[in-house]
Amino acid sequence: MTELARRLTTPPDTVDAVHDLLDRLWAVEPTITDEDRMRFETALIELASNVVQHGDRGSGVDWSVNVTCDPSVLSAQLVDSAPPISLDVDARLSMPSELAEDGRGLAFVRLLVDSATFANTAAGNEWRISKNRAT
Amino acid sequence: MQFTTEHLGTDIAVVRADGRLNMVSAPELRETVTVAITTGRSRIVVDLGATSFMDSSGLGALIGCLKSARQAEGDLRIAAPNDQVRMVLKLSNVDRILRSYDSPDEAYRD
Q1: Which of A10, A122, B47, B90 could form a disulfide with B16 if both were Cys (CB 3.0 to 4.6 A apart)?
Q2: Are A16 and B60 inside 8 Å of each other by CB?
Q3: Domains of chain B
Q4: Do B60 and A101 touch (CB under 8 A)?
Q5: How many structural domains comprise chain A?
Q6: What is the ipTM of this complex?
Q7: What's the CATH number where A13 sits?
Q8: Cα dihedral across residues A37, B104, B50, B71: positive or negative
Q9: pLDDT category, A88, cuts 50, 70, 90?
Q10: What does the pLDDT read at residue A58?
Q11: Considering only alpha carbons, which residue of chain A is nearest residue B84?
């Protein structure tokens, strides 16, 4: 099993730090298929983008990303220190029209991974996603 | 992410997007395409041959650029997307409105 983590502060950190973390994971775990990589990376970057866009209310936001790979599952935990938000994940399931320029992030997440949950915890706003690996 | 613009014929601009097209780089794509349109090249090809990744922010920028090009009586087409970009286009159904070609040279052959 491989577990990698990063603590981030925005600004100046961006979602590129999450891409870099995943590049390290792919290097350590070369048996993860291309399909699993692109689905997991796309979902995690959508959630990280959400933190950067909505978590920073003017005074910056501290956040952390943990990614774990075991023989059967890829999983990630993303926690931010922004004020608690209420989020109805199921309400964001529908895909906007083809010409919409935003609003697709969470719809993508639900289509790309096997599990996506959001909770307000003592540590902050917490997302957890998991993707069963191809066998 | 780096964007470079080359001219094709009299009114086509080929915008090459090199790297990750995400919320960090999406605003620069919009600016690059806007410059091309305002300088008289409203038929745009975004060459994705060197684009390693695209998320919903990058997709939103592409759609915004498509609208801008059409408002200027032009169009926007994409070339050489990789598997991840194709996945995002298909999941969002944007592959129905954004035509994809194998190379920039083929994009406006019709």
Answers
A1: B47
A2: no
A3: 2-98 (3.30.750.24)
A4: yes
A5: 1
A6: 0.93
A7: 3.30.565.10
A8: negative
A9: low
A10: 79
A11: A38
Q: What is the Cα B79 distance to its own chain's centre?
A: 8
- DSSP character at residue B77: E
Nearest CA in chain A to B96: A98
Domain of residue A81, residue span = 2-132
Q: Which are the contacts of A122, defined by CB distance < 8 A and separation ≥ 6?
A: none
Cα end-to-end span (Å), chain B: 30
Chain B interface includes A111 (CB < 8 A): yes
Beta bridge partners of A125: A80, A120
Q: Is the pLDDT of residue B19 over 90?
A: yes
Asked if the C-beta of A11 comes within 8 angstroms of chain B's C-beta atoms, the answer is no
